[in-house]
Amino acid sequence: MSAADLHIVGAGPAGLSAAHSAIVAGARVCLIDNDHAAGGQVWRGGPAAWTDPRARDIWKTLQAHPNFTHLRGAQVIGSAGADSLLLEAGGQALRLDVARLLVCSGARELFLPFPGWTLPGVTGAGGLQALIKGGMPVADKRIVVAGSGPLLLATAATAIEAGAKVVAIVEHQGLARLSRFGLGLLFRHQDKIRQALALFARLRKIPYFTGGRIVEARGLDAVRSLVVTTGRARQEFACDLVAAGFGLVPDIDLACAMGCETAGGAIAVDALQKTSRPGIWAAGECTGIGGVDKAIAEGRIAALDALETSPSAQDRAALGRSHDFAALLARSFVPGDSLKAMCRPETIVCRCEDVAAASLAPHRGWREAKLATRVGMGPCQGKTCGPACQFLFGWAPPAPRMPIVPAGARALSQIE
Ligand SMILES: Cc1cc2nc3c(=O)[nH]c(=O)nc-3n(C[C@H](O)[C@H](O)[C@H](O)COP(=O)(O)OP(=O)(O)OC[C@H]3O[C@@H](n4cnc5c(N)ncnc54)[C@H](O)[C@@H]3O)c2cc1C
User: Fold this and answer.
1) HSE on the CB side for 218, CA within 13 Å?
2) 73 in Cβ contact with 89 (< 8 Å)
3) Are residues 310 and 377 in the same domain?
4) Class of residue 288 by CB neighbours under 10 A (exposed 0-12, middle 13-18, buried 19+)
5) Structure confidence at residue 1 as a pLDDT band (50, 70, 90)
6) Out of 97, 210, 302, 378, which residue is the most buried by the measure of CB atoms under 10 Å away?
7) Domain-located, residue 52
8) Of 35, 42, 77, 94, best ligand 1 pocket probe by most atoms within 8 Å of the beta carbon
9) Does residue 403 have a cis bond before it (omega within 30 degrees)?
10) Same domain, residue pair 37 and 86
11) Which of 185, 212, 243 is a domain's end point?
């Protein structure tokens, strides 16, 4: 089904930008996403909710274009042979032959373990933002946002707009490193410094702590408070919700299932976004964390190359700028070793199988620990605890396996 010149998995900024470039070039495009609304993470909520003019312009071209097919609510669960994808949509299994595939699968949050992180009311920072954008009521709820990275500020802003009271933002990085990040923006990315200043202006009344670290979330049936250290001081914030995020991890599962190589935890691509497998390109956060501009630039270049068109000097310049910003982000928000102290021996690391840090620590690697403790053998298949164990113990994360997400028997029976 779906005869298209280019199949794209992921309708976030990378996939939408690629679809737009391909449609403008006259190609037939099939865009697949497990969400029902296009937008991915940063443009979550679908076209009606978008404020970014770039997203609105892209959609104006795509919607109702005769060459554009949007397979919504369709989860790609892996490959079904060398050049076909296996999808699950509406309880049905679909097999899709793809001549040219562009993977724009985005990223997941790095969620690091601390005592109380499994309590109801504790979520990832991006996770809480996604819930709020999805309609979860948070009016008058007291929220503490903690961890590291720019997503903390974006989450706090979303929560405030939805009527929540953000009690505190606790950033792990120290003031010196944050200042260097700010200077990097000032000298090389003025558009971003404007965005950052506008965000800080919206958050100016919220206590913002730097050099902080979570000690524990407290509560019996749900979170009631978060204890943090900032330098030598220890503070406890009463709250209804905790949003804790420590950065992002590229989602490489589909690319791995298709046999593409990875490098440094991301899908390996060349300067034109080609992966190691002929006929497969990758773009956006799945090739490395760098934000929306990188996703847009890479999506465009990948689509052009897939259609055998050379990118312009302007396209290459936009890509270069976005990679420079990605490098600045990576330097500025690398999770420090001191965050390992958040995880105590009794802290649960594998949330699906209830495996505590003490039973993991004696093992030499993921495979040995998995055989002995069932770590990573629950429904998430190591998507959360894999990166956590990599951070805590230095283990190479588990290789994604088919199906890349839990799937029904009908779809499973078609895996080759
Ligand atoms: C939870 C979260 C919240 C974020 N919030 C912000 C924010 O507020 N501001 C900001 O600047 N950046 C935010 N980011 C960073 C954000 O990822 C990027 O800026 C931008 O969205 C990246 O675009 P992308 O197209 O690469 O990926 P994404 O926007 O993540 O899009 C990837 C899409 O692929 C789909 N997908 C993945 N695998 C499959 C599959 N197997 N089958 C079908 N569909 C699939 C996903 O559902 C998703 O819609 C957030 C990231 C995360 C993880």
Assistant:
1) 10
2) yes
3) no
4) buried
5) very low
6) 302
7) yes
8) 42
9) yes
10) yes
11) 243
Query: What pTM value is reported for the model?
Result: 0.96
Residue 81 identity (one-letter amino acid): G
Question: What integer is the mean pLDDT of 173-189?
Answer: 95
Nearest-CA residue for ligand 1 atom 2 is 126
Indicate the number of domains in the chain.
3
Query: Could you give the C-alpha distances from 23 to 19, 33, 59, in angstroms and in order?
Result: 6, 18, 11
CA of 11 to the centre of ligand 1 (A): 8
| CATH number where 134 lies | 3.50.50.60
Q: Which atom of ligand 1 is nearest to the CA of 125?
A: 1
Pocket of ligand 1 (CB under 6 A): 9-15, 32-35, 40-42, 75-76, 104-109, 126-127, 129-130, 151, 154, 248, 251, 254, 284-285, 291-292, 295
Residue nearest atom 30 of ligand 1, based on CA coordinates: 106
Q: Is residue 271 part of a domain?
A: yes
- Is residue 414 a part of any domain in this protein? no
Looking at 330, 364, 385, the residue that finishes a domain is: 330
Instruction: Give the tokens for residue 55.
Output: 């997203």
The rounded Å distance from CA 286 to ligand 1 centre is 9
Which domain covers residue 123, as residue numbers?
113-243
pLDDT tens for each residue of 254-293: 999 999 999 999 999 999 999 999 999 999 999 999 999 9
